[in-house]
Amino acid sequence: MTEREAVAGMLDEFADRLEAKGVEYKPRAYRNAAESVRDTSRDALEQPKGIPDVGDAIASKIDEFRETGRVEELEELRDETPVEMEALTRVEGVGPKTVGKLYDALGVTDLDELEEAGRDGRIRNVTGFGEKTEENILDGIPFAREAGERTPLGESVPRARELVETVEGVVGVERAVAAGSVRRRKETTGDIDIVVVSDDREATADAFADRDVELVQKGDRKTSFRRDGEEVDLHLVEEDEFGAALQYFTGSKKHNVKTRDVAVGEGLKLNEYGVWDAETGERVAGETEEEVYDALGMGYIPPEMREDRGEVEVARDGTLPDLVNVEDVRGELHSHTSRTDGGATLERMVAGAEEKGLDYLAVTEHTEALGVVGGLSDDELLTLADDVRALGEDTDVRLFSGAEANVLKDGSLDVSDGTLSQLDVVVASVHTGMDMAKEEATERLVSAVRHDGVDILGHPSGRLINSREGYGYDFDAVLDAAEDEGVALELNANPRRLDIRDTQVRRCVEHGVPVAVNTDAHAPGEYGYVKYGVWTARRGWAEVEDVLNTRTADELEDWLDG
């Protein structure tokens, strides 16, 4: 675990344990600070008060944690509620508040005790729970156990980045690149693979043997170690082998099988050391990935596409897509402020958008049916719209008024048509009543898409990676409705959501349905989530024209009015 990830994890745990005790407001501040830490540079931890969303109190805890490896106040919270918070909150429907209630009522501290309490029928007797809740918790425990074995992309990418920086500082290392599922930007990842060019492979291996890690294997070709339970494999190669090794260890396995089959058909041999003429044994490529693919008669295949989903075939016939890049995204179409559950004022969110270089920003607050986060009434939405327009006169960021309307169980919205007609951008999302059959969920989403006032369907499955599986629905039926109605589907870029999935992005691309890569930002630091959304869009073969918010502000306005 990198230092940034450790600090962010400490802040997240602070938030969870405060919430478990019923503390208001503070948990959101700690979560915002955690996201800002994840999105900042390693050096920024030296002066934590300079990190967005980090005030004096949180900065002092960061300093204490970095100096001592612990925070006294957090230790006290752990003693007060001695539970395995991370494991328990992976169970769908079990948040920190639920953990606190179950600990107070039943003494539940871990998944085993939670399962035992459920099977004994004790959960249903806790105030605020019931038989159905108990059943749902029991159903979610196997998923929670399995989820603990995979790392979300939002954690693995910063971790891999910092590991690469560490490796680059080791004796003999000339270059290092993270490979594997991290490089392919899968939504969850396993162990971390790093391809390393070293002018003294033995010395590099010895350097890691001397470090504070659990050494698994040491050799001049591969050195593996565990740190905080995570295995890291260093693949040590020569400079002229680097491209072949990077291609091989990036994977996927199915992609590599396909490329090896192509090599055989071309009279070649492909492995992690290079491309060879099968008859003469002459080496023909290996130093770069580009020359490896070229030797196989292909264009360069971006790592995100390497899943054996047809990418080899299009690379062979010269029709590879020109994938969207992070810098192609011009604006944000889903954001929140402190008027509901956001962690920053409208003015601060706009200033953050300007600092991020966004061309436009839609402010889409929660609506009245979502009372738990202070959803706005129709009148409050219109007041906010006026404030957004007024603020737009004083900023270079084009501002759009909006709402994230709640989709009710019958598929209707909790905002009047008259109010919706006065807003620029309407995102429709399901936030409540998620326990429903596939057919019911499909009808609910299709009804929302067919509403005249809806522009974007937000995070359609409602999933939270490693926490909530989300409800099943017929994606093709929703896609067909979106195509008919000219509605975009959201790819929520929050790394805990990434909803829609990469394969669903591919279906949108095939049907010409725009994908809105939105961060769902609740604080300025969360605008940086856009990269996770773009990476997922690239896995779905999305090009610039497939992503709604790559349009200019004027082009977007034309689309909204169309």
UniProtKB/TrEMBL annotation:
Listed GO cellular component terms?
cytosol
Q: What SMART domains has UniProt attached to this entry? A: HhH1 (SM00278), POLIIIAc (SM00481), POLXc (SM00483)
Compositionally biased intervals (Basic and acidic residues): 36-46
Subcellular location(s) per record: Cytoplasm
User: GO MF terms on file?
Assistant: class I DNA-(apurinic or apyrimidinic site) endonuclease activity; DNA binding; DNA-directed DNA polymerase activity; exonuclease activity; phosphoric ester hydrolase activity; zinc ion binding
Q: What does it do?
A: Repair polymerase that plays a key role in base-excision repair. During this process, the damaged base is excised by specific DNA glycosylases, the DNA backbone is nicked at the abasic site by an apurinic/apyrimidic (AP) endonuclease, and POLB removes 5'-deoxyribose-phosphate from the preincised AP site acting as a 5'-deoxyribose-phosphate lyase (5'-dRP lyase); through its DNA polymerase activity, it adds one nucleotide to the 3' end of the arising single-nucleotide gap.
- What is this protein's name? DNA polymerase beta
- The protein's gene is named polX
